[in-house]
Structures are given as C-alpha cells and as structure tokens.
Amino acid sequence: MMAEDVMSSPVQVVTPEDTAAHARNLMIKHKVSRILVMEGDRLAGILTKKDLVYRLRQTEPIWRRRPIDRIPVSILMTESPVTIGPETPVREIAALMLDRMVSGLPVVNEGSVIGIVTKSDILRSEAAGALKIPVTGLMEEPVTISRYHSLDHIIDLLSERDEKLIVVNNDGTLAGIITETNLAFFEYANETGGIPEKDIKMLRKEASGGRKSYRYVTEVSAIAEDVMTHPVLTAPPETTAAEAVGLMINHHINSVVIARGSEILGIVKRDNILQEVAK
Known about the structure:
Blueprint: H1 3-6, E1 13-14, H2 20-30, E2 34-39, E3 42-48, H3 49-58, H4 61-64, H5 73-76, E4 78-79, H6 90-100, E5 104-109, E6 112-118, H7 119-123, H8 126-129, E7 143-146, H9 151-161, E8 165-168, E9 174-178, H10 180-184, E10 198-205, E11 213-220, H11 224-227, E12 234-235, H12 241-251, E13 255-260, E14 263-269, H13 270-277
Protein name: CBS domain-containing protein
Organism: Methanofollis fontis
GO biological process, one term: methionine biosynthetic process
C-alpha cells in the first residue's frame, strides 16, 4: 500500500495570518490534530495540537501575554514541513514519522498538496490491522501522576517525554489519562487573561478507618483531574496488536491502557504500532 491508498483528502487549511484560536476551532470542528498552513497554493507550514500546547510557552513574552485569539498561526507553526509523494510505501511513511517525530505528512504531487497521511491513517491500513503480536510484546511502562499535579507540571512532563500520562488515585488505581489533545483543547485562561487559581484538598495519609487527615494547597492552576479523560478504556494482556488497533480506531483514541482487574500493567500507543508496521 502507498500514501495515495491511505491518505486523508481534502485537508483543512489556514493562512499564516489566521489566528491560533481559529486554527484550534477548526481542529475541534473537524476532529483533526493538525492543519496545513497555505500561502496561496504554496505549503508554508503545518500547525498541530502539540504546537498549541508547547510552542506558545516557548515564544517571546510579548506573545505569551496575548490571548490565543490574537496570536497569528505564523508564530506557532512549523515551517517547511516534511512531505511525501503519493507513491511512498506505507512502511516508509511509518518509519519516517518515527524518525522525524511527526504525526502527519502532507502528500505533494507535482508541487500541489493532494492530501495528508497521519498516524491514524496508518492505524486504519491493512498492515496495522494484520498485526497478530500480543500487546505484551509492544506495551511500555506507563508514566503515572497524581490527580492533583498542576497543569504546569503536566505540560513539562509531556514536553520532555512525549508520553501519555496515566492519572492514578491515592490507592494506585486508574483515575484517567492525559494526552496532548486534553491540553490543546482545554480552556484554562480566566477572564483577565491569566491562569485561574483554585483551592485543592488532598488526603495526607490513607487510613482504613477513623478520621482522614487532609492538607490544603491554594493558588494552584488547573490540575490533572481537571484536564484528564475518564473513564479510561482498558484491555487485558491477552489482547493482540490488531485488536488494540481496532479499539483505537473505534473509540477515536491513540493509546490503550493494559490492565488486569485494577492493576495497571502497561500502555500501548500508536507509535508502538507504527514501529511494527515500519519493520
């Protein structure tokens, strides 16, 4: 199979002058994670949900102080993105995504953009659907955080590790999951443009009986439980890779938590599937 067999077309586009808020709204409306930036017929760049999460924090202070509806796409986009041709094999596409650490590749034919291949398109390919390896041979050890961790801490973890974060309760059981999508589409600016503050209450020490002791932490921005997705879809360790792919496609998710009962064993992500497809 080649790019033209699996690509998505037509693609959603914006101009460099459009606002980041407009681009984000298009992503939400059309349920996509990236938008091509076009100057006329020329591909100028690409804007992803990851850019919305991280790059705004890395821009000059003058831009960080502006609301998202006043920030141009050109400030946050990746210029001159990697492209592929319509006859590029799916195996090469998967390998290229992993090597360049990108989740979407525009398909260009004779200078014109004709579509885009995303990791989700790879998941829907015959190559991914035919994987019979058990998920235990693919899964990774999850990165876990407390449901009380701050938004800043979450963003730092995701930017450093490029991971999905498993949110756990005080007893270690599964509470939720946080991905880049949760952060990119989460509204956390208050009416004055700042980060809202809240009081949170945490259990100091768990006890089987008697009075519980709590400690209070004030002036904390949004926390994990505010942005996480829950409940979380899980699968048993006997699941095959192809079955995990089916779960991701049917539930519009990009990872599956592997668990036995209340015990979290690992997590299988799209990249784990792409690694198999690229072999």
